[in-house]
Each structure stands twice: as C-alpha cells, then as structure tokens.
Amino acid sequence: MREYKGQISAEFVLLTGFILVVAIIIASQAGSSLELDQVMSAAKTGTIEATNDLAYNGTGNLIRFQNITFKDGKITITVYSKKRLTYNEMNYIKGKVLESIGETIGKQVTGDLVKGRYNYTVEVVNVT
C-alpha cells in the first residue's frame, strides 16, 4: 500500500500559479485606475478653488467649473465665465490645478506638468 502524504498535484500548482498571475494583473490595473481617479478629483477641486479665488477677489465675474476631460496625460478643463478670463487668470487656474494634483499624488510640479503614471498637463478653456 502506497502513501501519498505531502504530495501536491500538478493541477493544484498550475491553478495556484494561474490565480496568482490574474491577481497581479488585476492589482496593476486597479492601481493605475486609482491614481487617475485621484488626479481627476484633485483637478476638479483645484479648479473650483481657483475659480472661487478669482470670482471673489472683487472682479464681479461669475466663474463656474463646467467640464473636465482626460486624454494621454492631458487634462482639459472647461470653465464658464460671465466675462472672458485673462491670460493671467487662466494661468492661475492652471497653476492651482497642477498644485492640487501634485499634492494628491505626492509629486513635484515641474514646469507645467506633474510626473506620475502619466506626465499630467493642464489646459484651461474659457467659454462665455
């Protein structure tokens, strides 16, 4: 009579390896998705803070966040304003958004971008 104590079947080893590979793939996808969600949330928060700063500094301009899109690291933010925003005001919004993104993912703002999973850049579009 043979004893089979301590033996693991080849099927069990293969199944365990397959489950490990699937878990690693899912974890890597979830990690990149989490950073992007954090970045987009930070971009929206930075936009709202910046537009509030500009709207309440005595200009009498009504400024509202309208839309945000993302493509290959480029974040395009559309804001509505009663009066057309100046170049400096649009740069102020852009700077606040980049600072917010940098703080959220723990990276430095270098020039006009934040390096994370992508090189995040920001474009502000003003509609009146």
Report on this model:
- With 128 residues, the protein is an alpha+beta fold.
- It has helices at 10-59, 87-105, and strands at residues 63-71, 74-81, 109-110, 113-115, 119-127.
- It has a single domain, classed as GMP Synthetase, Chain A, domain 3.
- It contains 2 helices and 5 strands, in the order αββαβββ.
- A 5-stranded mixed β-sheet has the order 1-2-5-4-3, covered by helices on one side.
- The chain is rod-shaped.
- The model has no long low-confidence stretch (mean pLDDT 85).
- The chain crosses the membrane at residues 12-31.
Give the topology, please.
Blueprint: H1 10-59, E1 63-71, E2 74-81, H2 87-105, E3 109-110, E4 113-115, E5 119-127
Parallel strand pairs: 2-5
Antiparallel strand pairs: 1-2, 3-4, 4-5
Helix pairs in contact: 1-2
Q: Can you give keywords for this protein?
A:
128 residues; alpha+beta; GMP Synthetase, Chain A, domain 3; five-stranded mixed β-sheet; 2 helices; 5 strands; rod-shaped
Q: What's the Cα radius of gyration?
A: 24 Å
Shape: rod-shaped
Helix content: 40-55%
Strand content: 15-25%
CATH topology: GMP Synthetase, Chain A, domain 3
* Main beta sheet strand tally, sense and closure: 5 strands, mixed
Strand order of the largest sheet: 1-2-5-4-3
The CATH C-level class name: Alpha Beta
| Beta-strand segment tally | 5
| Separation of the first and last Cα atoms | 88 Å
Q: Stretches where pLDDT falls below 50 for ≥5 residues?
A: none
CATH architecture: 2-Layer Sandwich
Supply the number of structural domains.
1
Q: Supply the number of helical segments.
A: 2
The residue-averaged pLDDT reads 85
- Alpha-beta classification: alpha+beta
What is the helix/strand order?
A: HEEHEEE
